[in-house]
Amino acid sequence: MDRKVAFITGITGQDGSYLAEFLLKKGYKVYGMVRRASVDKYERIAHIMDKIELIQGDLLDQYSLISALKKAQPTEVYNLAAQSFVPTSWAQPVLTSEFTAIGVTRMLESIRLVDPKIRFYQASSSEMYGKVLQTPQTEETPFYPRSPYGVAKVYGHYITVNYRESYDLFAVSGILFNHESPRRGLEFVTRKVTDGVARIKLGLQKELRLGNLDARRDWGFAGDYVEAMWLMLQQETPDDYVIATGETRTVKELVQVAFDRVGLDWEKHVVLDPAFLRPAEVDLLIGDPAKAKRQLGWTPKVSFEEMIRMMVDSDLERLSQ
Ligand code: NAP
Ligand code: GDD
């Protein structure tokens, strides 16, 4: 069989770095799309830079996508690039739509033009469920997004389904619930907490300012979730899947696990700051991964507690150097 070739947008992000590692282990030739910047942002992929090939391109620029696909000639495209931080989507709603919504159409159109046999993965999100209409959330649960980011992801989801139905593309949408790791961006709540806990433990900071402690999320480990992306593209027929742990926890529980790891009392350090409240909140997310388990044979391996401890330990080590 010919060698499989993957093209990953968002390879410099959390998921892109884990997916690239995973696909290299499977023997893939891996190309990553990167946008031009005045300084390099290759921290998450520094350890595999000699094994992957980077091509410049931007989801805002259709021609760059077409030429990148022509160069890489991939068998699989993983579209992970997006403006992915929910609060920024209120500050930059138009740009968020351009990247996170219309960017998906640009990528699908490029695939149609260059090679319609390419298998396509779209990084959809549990944020699409927003003000949830059913609990737990499944592939059948209607969407009710609560942020410009969530609205943009709903568009990305449906344009993927539409191109599958209109043009018979092998296009799938993975509805992934929150997934975290030591490589998570510092502004997301898990990493903000584990980094803050490590700083407080090391005497570098005294308090940790947070918003809504009552929000509930279904948090899994990013390393487990990239396997599900790959599995979706190995099936006989394209379909959409919820990827989740099936458990939910509050931000307060997350804070407790992280402070417990270093033997500190969270109530002495956490300060509630209205600046981190959102114009509209997603109160509760909990996914039902039964379909992924049944059809893909996928189950998460790392527990919530293990993951948060792993993140605290990693931040302690990094900040101690
Ligand atoms: P992330 O760490 O924020 O990475 C986002 C990536 O997108 C970065 O590589 C970024 O590149 C790239 N990017 C942004 N705008 C771009 C553009 N216009 N053109 C090209 N590249 C662009 O996100 P993540 O956590 O890995 O998530 C990956 C994907 O899954 C995203 O689409 C996200 O919305 C979705 N998702 C994430 C979760 C989660 O819990 N992590 C859950 C559901 C869905 P730079 O390095 O240049 O900024
Ligand atoms: N970021 C942040 N900072 N969130 C806070 C804070 C804070 O100081 N305090 C409380 N929270 C709450 C938020 O209000 C939200 O309810 C929850 O913590 C999780 O916030 P984030 O970690 O920023 O993630 P998110 O759920 O908004 O979005 C992430 O998950 C989505 C999947 O459901 C992102 O990765 C999205 O890209 C992804 O699609």
Question: Could you walk me through the main structural features you see in this protein, from its secondary elements to its overall organization?
Answer:
With 321 residues, the chain is an alpha/beta fold. It folds into two domains: 5-179 and 219-243, Rossmann fold; 185-218 and 247-282 and 303-320, UDP-galactose 4-epimerase, domain 1 (Alpha-Beta Complex). Helices cover 41% and strands 15% of the residues. Strand 1 (5-9), helix 1 and strand 2 form a beta-alpha-beta unit. The mean pLDDT is 97. Bound molecules: NADP nicotinamide-adenine-dinucleotide phosphate (NAP) and guanosine-5'-diphosphate-alpha-D-mannose. NADP nicotinamide-adenine-dinucleotide phosphate (NAP) is lined by residues 9-10, 12-16, 35, 41, 58-60, 80-84, 99, 123, 125, 176, 178-179, 185.
Mean pLDDT across residues: 97
Within CATH, the superfamily of the largest domain carries the name NAD(P)-binding Rossmann-like Domain
Q: Under CATH, the topology of the largest domain is which? A: Rossmann fold
Largest sheet: 7 strands, parallel
Topology pattern, helix = H, strand = E = EHEEHEHHEHEEHEEEHEEHEHH
Give the overall silhouette. Answer: globular
For the termini, the CA-CA separation is: 46 Å
CATH second-level architecture of the largest domain:
3-Layer(aba) Sandwich
| Poorly predicted sequence stretches spanning 5 or more consecutive residues | none
Q: Work out the radius of gyration.
A: 19 Å
Q: Record the strand order, biggest sheet.
A: 3-2-1-4-5-6-11
The helix-and-strand class reads alpha/beta
**Assembly state of the chains shown:** single chain
Q: Which hetero ligands occur in this complex?
A: NADP nicotinamide-adenine-dinucleotide phosphate, guanosine-5'-diphosphate-alpha-D-mannose
- Count of the domains: 2
User: Number of DSSP helices?
Assistant: 10
The fraction of residues in strands falls at 15-25%
Report helical residue fraction.
40-55%
